[in-house]
Design a protein that fits this description.
- The protein has helices at 9-27, 29-32, 46-51, 83-96, 104-115, 118-132, 137-156, 160-174, 179-195, 218-232; strands spanning 2-4, 39-41, 61-62, 75-76.
- By secondary structure, the protein is mainly alpha-helical.
């Protein structure tokens, strides 16, 4: 999210790059299904600035999915202001988010199930069910997903985990799936990573130091000063 002020010269410099970022995300179904690029007029929606602790302009904040949109969950983006730098940051966040539905308490059993013969798989499904019963909150819902996927593999064999993961990723990348279905598919794909023995991705590295902001030109500076004088009146 990019709160901007109409009187801010730096905001005007950022606008073309932010538009490029939005176009790049929209053109890639895999990104468009998981990201929302938003711009907010802070003059017209001043309460949002206070709500999300906006201290200056332009401000760019990243809101991770699965958490309420609050000033505590919002992450300030302090990296480069080019569309390429912002896009790289977002791709890094998505890569680190692949394990969002994983449950550490179940992953060890799931990895064994992903390699097990049919007779052994039945026993491991029972172990998953017992372990899932002890979970609470979001972990409980995701635990039920582990059990559901493991039971499907009883009929289709352990190769089901890889083929189903590939199918889900193709559908998500196609861009032809409703947003609510994309969320369900992404959760399944995340859990399937546990059966395939994939490590949970480490959090994306901190973004590089911000590029030096361009200086405001004289017209922009005059506009800011005029706005400030009006505010004082």
């Amino acid at each position: 999210m990019n709160p901007v002020c109409r009187r801010c010269g730096h905001c005007k410099h950022l606008t073309p790059e932010y538009k490029k970022l939005g176009a790049a995300v929209e053109a890639d179904p895999a990104l468009a299904s998981r990201l929302v690029i938003a711009k907010v007029d802070a003059d017209a929606h001043n309460p949002l600035g206070s709500r999300f602790d906006v201290q200056g302009f332009p401000t760019i904040k990243f809101f991770p999915r699965g958490k309420p949109a609050t000033k505590d969950s919002a992450q300030d983006y302090n990296g480069g202001r080019s569309s390429d730098a912002m896009l790289a940051f977002l791709k890094g966040k998505l890569e680190g988010d692949k394990g969002f539905a994983r449950v550490a308490e179940l992953d060890a059993i799931a990895e064994k199930a992903g390699k097990a013969a049919k007779d052994d798989l039945k026993k491991l499904v029972g172990e998953l069910e017992e372990a899932a019963k002890k979970l609470e909150g979001d972990a409980k819902a995701n635990g039920e997903l582990y059990v559901k996927l493991a039971k499907k593999a009883l009929d289709k064999g352990s190769e089901y985990f890889a083929t189903e993961r590939a199918r889900l990723e193709r559908m998500i990348s196609s861009g032809g799936v409703a947003a609510n279905k994309v969320s369900e598919m992404a959760a399944k794909s995340s859990v399937l990573g546990g059966f395939l023995g994939e490590p949970i991705a480490a959090p994306a590295a901190e973004e590089e130091e911000a590029e030096e902001e361009p200086e405001e030109d004289e017209d922009d500076a005059d506009e800011v000063e005029e706005g400030e004088e009006k505010d004082e009146e």
